[in-house]
Protein backbone atom coordinates (compact mmCIF):
# COMPACT_ATOMS: atom_id res chain seq x y z
CA UNK A 1 0.00 0.00 0.00
CA UNK A 2 1.24 3.49 -0.83
CA UNK A 3 2.52 5.70 1.99
CA UNK A 4 2.83 9.43 2.54
CA UNK A 5 6.58 9.00 2.14
CA UNK A 6 6.05 7.32 -1.25
CA UNK A 7 3.89 10.24 -2.36
CA UNK A 8 6.46 12.74 -1.12
CA UNK A 9 9.20 10.94 -3.03
CA UNK A 10 7.23 11.15 -6.30
CA UNK A 11 8.57 14.68 -6.63
CA UNK A 12 5.31 16.30 -7.76
CA UNK A 13 5.28 19.79 -6.18
CA UNK A 14 1.53 19.83 -5.51
CA UNK A 15 1.64 16.38 -3.97
CA UNK A 16 4.73 17.18 -1.88
CA UNK A 17 2.95 20.27 -0.54
CA UNK A 18 -0.18 18.22 0.21
CA UNK A 19 1.85 15.60 2.11
CA UNK A 20 3.56 18.30 4.17
CA UNK A 21 0.21 19.95 4.93
CA UNK A 22 -1.30 16.61 5.98
CA UNK A 23 1.68 16.05 8.28
CA UNK A 24 1.22 19.52 9.76
CA UNK A 25 -2.34 18.53 10.74
CA UNK A 26 -0.75 15.99 13.09
CA UNK A 27 1.62 17.98 15.33
CA UNK A 28 3.80 16.20 17.89
CA UNK A 29 2.82 18.84 20.44
CA UNK A 30 -0.66 20.15 19.56
CA UNK A 31 -0.45 22.93 22.15
CA UNK A 32 2.61 24.49 20.50
CA UNK A 33 2.34 26.58 17.34
CA UNK A 34 4.58 25.41 14.51
CA UNK A 35 5.29 22.07 16.21
CA UNK A 36 6.98 19.39 14.14
CA UNK A 37 4.60 16.90 12.51
CA UNK A 38 3.99 13.53 14.10
CA UNK A 39 4.72 11.60 10.92
CA UNK A 40 3.91 8.25 12.51
CA UNK A 41 0.39 9.41 13.35
CA UNK A 42 -0.06 11.13 9.96
CA UNK A 43 1.03 7.95 8.18
CA UNK A 44 -1.32 5.85 10.30
CA UNK A 45 -4.23 8.17 9.49
CA UNK A 46 -3.41 8.17 5.77
CA UNK A 47 -3.33 4.37 5.80
CA UNK A 48 -6.69 4.38 7.58
CA UNK A 49 -8.12 6.69 4.90
CA UNK A 50 -7.00 4.21 2.24
CA UNK A 51 -8.58 1.36 4.18
CA UNK A 52 -11.86 3.29 4.45
CA UNK A 53 -11.81 4.03 0.72
CA UNK A 54 -11.03 0.41 -0.09
CA UNK A 55 -13.80 -0.79 2.20
CA UNK A 56 -16.27 1.39 0.29
CA UNK A 57 -15.16 0.06 -3.09
CA UNK A 58 -17.09 -2.59 -4.91
CA UNK A 59 -15.33 -5.94 -5.22
CA UNK A 60 -13.17 -6.04 -8.34
CA UNK A 61 -14.33 -7.85 -11.45
CA UNK A 62 -12.96 -11.37 -11.59
CA UNK A 63 -10.62 -10.56 -14.47
CA UNK A 64 -8.99 -7.48 -12.88
CA UNK A 65 -8.12 -8.86 -9.43
CA UNK A 66 -7.29 -7.08 -6.20
CA UNK A 67 -4.13 -5.42 -7.55
CA UNK A 68 -6.23 -3.14 -9.74
CA UNK A 69 -8.52 -2.27 -6.83
CA UNK A 70 -5.56 -1.38 -4.61
CA UNK A 71 -4.03 0.77 -7.36
CA UNK A 72 -7.33 2.59 -7.98
CA UNK A 73 -7.82 3.12 -4.25
CA UNK A 74 -4.30 4.51 -3.87
CA UNK A 75 -5.01 6.94 -6.72
CA UNK A 76 -8.23 8.02 -5.00
CA UNK A 77 -6.31 8.57 -1.75
CA UNK A 78 -3.75 10.65 -3.66
CA UNK A 79 -6.56 12.80 -5.11
CA UNK A 80 -8.19 13.10 -1.70
CA UNK A 81 -4.94 14.39 -0.23
CA UNK A 82 -4.70 17.00 -3.02
CA UNK A 83 -8.33 17.98 -2.41
CA UNK A 84 -7.75 18.35 1.33
CA UNK A 85 -4.83 20.66 0.61
CA UNK A 86 -7.04 22.89 -1.55
CA UNK A 87 -9.44 23.49 1.36
CA UNK A 88 -8.21 26.16 3.80
CA UNK A 89 -8.15 25.00 7.42
CA UNK A 90 -9.23 21.43 6.70
CA UNK A 91 -8.99 18.86 9.48
CA UNK A 92 -7.94 15.25 9.15
CA UNK A 93 -11.17 13.22 8.96
CA UNK A 94 -9.64 10.42 11.05
CA UNK A 95 -8.71 12.89 13.81
CA UNK A 96 -12.21 14.38 13.68
CA UNK A 97 -13.83 10.96 13.91
CA UNK A 98 -11.66 9.98 16.89
CA UNK A 99 -12.54 13.16 18.79
CA UNK A 100 -16.32 12.91 18.41
CA UNK A 101 -18.11 12.55 21.72
CA UNK A 102 -19.94 9.28 22.12
CA UNK A 103 -23.72 9.62 22.22
Describe this structure in words.
Helices cover about 65% and strands about 0% of the residues. The protein is mainly alpha-helical and about 100 residues long. The longest helix is centred in the last third of the chain and has 22 residues, at about 65-85. The radius of gyration is 15 Å and the shape is globular.
Binned, the helix content reads 55-70%
Question: Helix and strand succession?
Answer: HHHHH
- Averaged pLDDT, please? 85
Q: Which regions are unreliable across 5 or more consecutive residues at pLDDT < 50?
A: none
Number of strands: 0
Rounded to the nearest angstrom, the radius of gyration is 15 Å
- Main sheet characteristics: none
Overall geometric form: globular
Number of helices: 5
User: Which class do the helix and strand fractions yield?
Assistant: mainly alpha
Note the beta-strand portion: under 5%
Distance between the termini: 34 Å
